[in-house]
Amino acid sequence: MPINSFAEADQYLREQLLPQITVSAEIVSDTDAYNAQIPPLKDFVADPNTYPLYGAQPTDDANTVYVEIYSSAEKANAARDDERWLVDVAERFNQQQNRLPSGEIIQVGVRNIPSGLGAQILAAGKGKPAGYTPAHALWPELLKADGLDQVETISPGLVSTSAIFALRPEIYRKLAEGGDVTFDRLIDAILAGGIKVGYSNPYIASSALNFLYSLLWHSAGHQADGKPLTLAELASPEISSVFDTFQQQVVLTTPTYLDLKQIWLRNPTAFDVIVMAHQSYVGLIQQPGFDDFKYVSFGIPEASPLVSFAWTTASEKAALAQFAAFATSAEMQQLAEKQGYQKLEHLKQNNVPPLPSGEVLKAAQSFWKRRKDGGRTVYMEVVIDTSGSMADENKLAAVQRALQVASQQISPSNQIGLITFSDHPVRRIPLAPYSELEQKRLFTAIEQLRSDGATALYDGLAVGLADLMEKQKQDAEGQFYLLLLTDGERTDGLRFNQIEAVIRHSGVRVYPIAYGGAPKSTLERSHRLKKALYTKGRPKKCRH
């Protein structure tokens, strides 16, 4: 039968496809859920040693002072020419064999960890690097609020850039018809509706945290008086109204803006605007089809400060100071300019919010977490491949760890379901409001997963879609997502062409994530249908 609507897709799914599928149920009992003990979130913070380390490596040489620096990803990714500035700086510094006054040679290693994840690792005590250079000074303030003593500034800034909104050219031209395209005018246009926004996680991404604070600060009217945002103001109806309206325009939230950028490069119409750093935007507009894209800058300068900690020794601090002086030298700053770092006009005019306290930033993050769904219920079906191949390379263990972390960060107003598939789908958690009991049920179900059998991929997808489509009949205003985690092509059950039209008209955003060496072909077919993010999972890193 032809499928051109939600109703036709729903009918075809229930009458033609589901009768072909054997579905079993292994629901965690209330008793087991009540008795579950969920470890504190900090126990699930990633091991920093799973992130890439560039430059010098640790050494036992008594004549060498080795310093490791956790660096934000946009300046420490050796794999991309426009994201490797600090790696280049460290390599050149190390080649010079610089010495301390006492004679030891200084060697610097740079570990690529997104700013927010680096802060989580430090706050949890999972890593003790000599230094930390997030993209923004906001993160050291958060660390102080988390109880880290003696966070000492070695350099207030290694390199300067700004947070921006990158805009598709037609959006910019329309705004320009009414005058200068400013941050305030862009926000007003987004709040008025019709502009699709790509945003990243303010617990991880600096530009996202910068924007979150800037939006709340502007909403409180402080662009007129220049005063910092207060904790009390976060409870005001004005701020809540602006934030909720903005969130209704967000079509996708990813861990970092680098993910949004890669989606845009594959599909320039996926978003109308995205929040990112200007330095990365410079590389974006050099890509075919993006040369006419525009930007609007905002927020507190992103200066990449370098800080040390209570455990940093005096010789390590001296080594960091020498490295900071080298990084801020004219030659290294010229190198930074070649990789897109520029001081934008709004920064030169000092038209920026004041640096907030860590307590206010923590409250702002919590505000985002509680209200990010814009008052609408999110229905998320997690569909996991538990076939035999998921045992290889710790792939299933990686999925379990990542989901156990995520299970502690879900809003109670949302509904989460869990389905696994191997030879056939197994319903493990029915879609239900995410109460404390349901959180324990989900945590326990994830812990119990085992790998075995074939890969009935589209059988699992069909069952998940059916559950979500049933919920849509009850809540037309909800947001419906299906997260599909697998390591390979289907080997059993339904074929893609049998379910393709159902996916297209389901009203569900399908996000496939491939673990290990999974072939992209099948997942990218569903990616093209739903403009979903294709992510290659990292089984041993468990990034979230």
In CATH, the homologous superfamily of the largest domain goes by the name: von Willebrand factor, type A domain
CA-based shape? globular
Helix content: 25-40%
Number of helices: 21
Mean pLDDT: 87
Structure description:
The chain has 21 helices and 18 strands. The chain starts with 5 loop residues before the first helix and ends in a 7-residue tail after the last strand. The strands form four sheets. Strands 1-15-14-13-16-17-18 form a seven-stranded mixed sheet, sandwiched between helices. The chain is globular and about 75 Å long. The chain has three domains: about 5-35 and about 375-535, von Willebrand factor, type A domain (Rossmann fold, 3-Layer(aba) Sandwich); about 45-160 and about 305-340, D-Maltodextrin-Binding Protein, domain 2; about 160-300, Periplasmic binding protein-like II (D-Maltodextrin-Binding Protein, domain 2). With about 550 residues, the chain is an alpha/beta fold. It has helices at about 5-15, 30-35, 85-95, 115-125, 140-145, 170-175, 185-190, 205-220, 220-225, 235-245, 255-265, 280-285, 315-325, 330-340, 345-350, 360-370, 395-405, 435-445, 455-475, 495-505, 520-530; strands at about 25, 55, 65-70, 105-110, 130-135, 150-155, 160-165, 195-200, 250-255, 275, 295-300, 305-310, 380-385, 415-420, 425-435, 480-485, 510-515, 535.
Provide tags for this entry:
single chain, 544 residues, alpha/beta, Rossmann fold, D-Maltodextrin-Binding Protein, domain 2, 3 domains, seven-stranded mixed β-sheet, 39% helix, globular, disordered C terminus
